[in-house]
Each structure stands twice: as C-alpha cells, then as structure tokens.
Design goal:
about 650 residues, Rossmann fold, 5 domains, 6-stranded mixed β-sheet, 6-stranded antiparallel barrel
Amino acid sequence: MLIKVVDYAKKINKSADEILKACADLEMEYITNQNSILNGDDITDLENYFMEKESKRKNIKKSKEKKETLQKNVALNEEKIVVYRDNITVREFADNLAVPANEVIKKLFTLGIMANVNNNLDYETAEIIASEYEKELKKESSLDIANFEEFEVRDEEKDLKPRPPVVTIMGHVDHGKTTLLDTIRKANIASGEAGGITQAISAYQVNYKKGKITFIDTPGHAAFTQMRARGAQVTDIVIILVAADDGIMPQTKEAIDHAKEANVPIMVAINKIDKSGANPERVMTELSEYGLMPDVWGGDVLYTNISALKGDGIEELLENILLIAEMNNYRANPNRYASGVVIEASLDKTIGPIATLLIQSGTLRLGDPIVVGTCFGRIRNMKNDENKAIEEASPSQPVVVMGLSETPVAGDRFLAFENEKEAKRVWQERKVKCRQDDCLPKTGVTLDEVFSKIKEGETEVKVIVKADVQGSAEAVKNCLEEVMVEDIKIRVIRNSVGAVSENDIMLAKASGAIIISFNLPINNDMYKCAKEHQVDIRNHNIIYKVVEEMEAALKGMLAPEYEEKKLGKAEVRQLFKFSKVGVIAGSYITEGIVKNNALCRIWRDQEMIHEGKIKSIQREKDSAKEVKKGLECGITIDNFTELAEGDIIEAFEMVEIKR
C-alpha cells in the first residue's frame, strides 16, 4: 500500500505536520514533505507511534482525573464546615453560614432565645443552628504565622499561574544521574565530581521548548527523605534511573520505596541502552514486579530509553516530563511574599552562611527580610544556578542566597516578610519554640502513638521489615499483611535483607513507619539514631510474636466500641405544626429522662417506624437540655414530621466500652 503523507493525514484525522514530526521521530529521513510517499511498513510504524502516544496521554489523564476527584471531595467536605470563634456575634455567625442574619434570629427564637445581630452566641447554640443547615461546626484555631510550615495558604484561582515542574532523579549509584543532568544542561558537571559521584545536593533549571524544568540532583535517597521527614515536599515528579546493563540494584529498590512514599508521579528512564549487554525489556519486567507497570504494557508509568552519555532519548524524556506537568497543571501564585524550602546550605569562611533555596510560591526579591528555619536575614545577594546575580526569583526557581544570620538545615522551610520588624518577631518566637522542643521534627511514630494517627484518619500501619535472610523477610511480610482488625491493616513499605540502616530510619521517619528487625542484632549507633528521630524499632526472632504484637497494637488503634444505654421514654399527646419549625410533639415523659440531641426511636403500635435524633426540646417557653419523668415538654425530631398522637419516643445514647 502506497499513500501520500497529506492523504494519510486526512485519513487518520491528523495534520500533515503531525505526520511529518512523527516520521522525523521515527528517523524516516526519506519523508521530507507532505507529498512524500508512505509504504506499508511506514504506516505500521506510524500506527504504533500514535497508539503509544495516545496510551501515554490516556494513562496520565486517568491519573489526573483521579486527583481532581479527590480534590473535589475535599472541597465538598470543606463547604460543610462552619467556623466558630469565642464571642462570635449573631451577624458574624450568619455571615459564616452564608445566610441572612434575620434567618438565624428566627431559628434562635424557635429555640426560645431572644437575640439581635450584636448578641454573642455560645458554642452549643451555634452547633444547633449549624446542624439546621447540615453544617459541621469547628472552633477556629489560632493561626500563628510563627509556625508557617504547619499551614497552607490557599490562593484564589485567578491568582494562580503555571510554574515549572520540579523533578528529582533517583537511582543506584553510578547509573548515570549526574551524567544525565550534564547532558541536559550541556555543561560538564560530572567531571568536577570526585570519582564521578555527586558530592552535594544541587538544583538546576533548564529551558526546553514549551517551558522550564527544575531538576534536583541528590547524593542519596537519605537526603531526599530527610527533607520529607522535616515536612518539606520538594518534588513534583520522581525519575527512577536504571542502567539497562545492570538492571535493578539495591539502591534502585530503595529509590522506588522513597518515591512511592513521596506520593508523586513516577517516571522511569532506562539509561546506557547503547552499551553491550543492555536489556531494556528485562528492566521493564523487573520494575513491573515492583508496581511500576510500563505505559506500553497498559500501565500508568512512562518509560523512556536513553543514553545519558550520547544524548539519545533525552528529548523524549523532557517531552514526557512536560506532558506530566501539563496534565497535573502545576501552578503557584507569584504575587505574594515568597515561601519554599532549603535544598542545601553551607558556611563560607569569607562570605558567611550560603543557602540554596527552592521557591515554591511567591516571588523572592533582593532585600526581602526572611526567616529560614530558626535563622533570620535580609537577602543581600542572590544568584541563579548559572551563578549570575539576579534581583528576583519566581516559583520553582532554585537560587543561592546570602545574608542569613546562621546556616540553616536542608529541608528547613522559609518565608519572606513585608518588613524586618515582623520577620524578627517571628524569628524570635521560632527560636524560643525550638529551644523548648529541642528542634526535633515530630514525624516519627511509635506503636503507642499509632492510635492517635488513626483518629486523624489513618487506616493503616506502615512497617519496614529487615531480616537476616530473604526467606524470613518474605515470611514476616506475608504474615503481617494478612493481619487485619476490622478496617485497619498493615502495609509493608520496605522488605529487605540486612541490618537496620540510617536510610531505613529516615524512610520510617518520613513515612511514619515502625521498623521490625527480625533475627538480627541492632547496632547501638542505630538505636541512638532511631531515638533521635523518634522512630520505633521492634526486635524479634519468632514470627508469631511479631504478629501478636502488631495485632495487639491494631486492636488498640481501633475506633472505640459502644453499647446502647437507655435514657427514657416520652408519649406523644398533642401535635403542633409550624411552617418554619415543622412538627412539635407535645409529650409526657413516662420513663427516665429525655435529652436534647439524644438518639431516638419512634414506636407506633409496638412497631418501630423511625430511628433518628432528637432535634430540640422545649420546656414551656425555654429550650431544655433534658426533661425528667413526670414532666411535659415539646419535642422535635430531626428530619421526621410524620408523628401521631400516641407514638412513643424512646431516647438512648451510645456509651464507649473498654476493649
């Protein structure tokens, strides 16, 4: 079959330029213009090319849609929350509810409360009003700017602008990380390193076609995890670099563990494809066993074959980075004071403290007062990654700054301020707090603390398993992952042979995991390191003891068990209907007590017709918290108006019981 490029383009609903670009990518040098002739083999190659490209787009789109769904769910939950602060007025509370103030005043009147817009509301009354609008009341937490790493400023949609993606390259030593950056930057970085191995963290920004990309080159996974352990999520995309002739090595597995726990998109670059013995297919097979299923096999991980030394495949790698960036729509607000994270820092004897900062939001300008961790300063000199002096830096840009009072630590957050007075106040507060807390990040977790994590919404316990032999490691992993108490389960995030290392401790710290050492001695230095970083190491040599201990922890983590406690009963003797309140049941308490907000069942002719909650109780003209046996009151039931005279309202509550 022979067909012109222009005719083939019309046939598959694409432009001739797209076909010519694809031909160039496929190195069909004989296809030069839209009148060039395509043969059957050319068409087959083009079909495969477009299918592969479409597969990549679909997989990334799927990931993006999943992310957007989660964001929508979060937004919906936030819409249901109303903020309450002490001494809030009726007018302010109505504004928080987004309803007219007179509407709130009317609802208060039905509760027997006479109020005007300037009266204060107590928390209990505000909670009742909020429930009328199906809203959840939450007390306002004091926003202390001195703890700026603990809160997130949400910018308005109109203020957000696209920013370059931040990419971290991770992999086994000597698999070509720095050589890859060397090729991308067209600069000889690797030759300046001792033995070709990276000596310090560095960040670089490169221009490529449609935009910029920021790369962070790390000397090891521990440094990457150290920053995450300090609460600094510095990267948008992780590239796992694997040599085609070596395949998966121990550090490759560690890189995958760290990347997965960072919860960011992962790409794979298979390097050294030009070497003899290179086998990209074997690498793909091995990585798929670790959950990195290639896009060409129907997975959602983009793979690129490259030669960092010769430059082969680099353009495709950069295209894939920009493709993921486009799908994830990375944005930031450049029009506010800068915030971000320290990538690396050092002390120069002649210049003083020097720090490499990554701007994550806002714009950093020469002269800005800044607080970095527990250091203060004013930006008196700022250079970009090409060592050129600049006056300002925008989101995702790495810069080297001078002017700090002390040398910060990699992973420290920073915030720029409008004036020096405010910056110094925050700096002093942070220094005092640091002395009180010994500056230890509170990210480690112990078995005794996991229950509080579950209360915060965690549904699993993360575990790192270290064992003397692979068979034991697999056995412990399998036994632990079979343990499940109700909806709480164990997830083994690393399972390997060998003694507990500092890298294991840093991963445990960053991810909130417990370390289980099986049939292995633990070095005293590692115990000290674990204690310093508040990581729990459990040492065992019998599998069922490991399982028993974790099961006991899970049972302690479960939500409390409850049993029903009967409160009392009320008989409905008369009904009063009001258009704005609904049905009020004039009732007589026949047993015990009936409490406001108690759970209840409605019985009619010995048959339960409704189960719900008591919405309000009125005793004469006043609202009441509870009414005892022998007294009359008015009761309204939440979301139920089908009451009849003679109905029995049975009140009860659920009481927590100890396990």
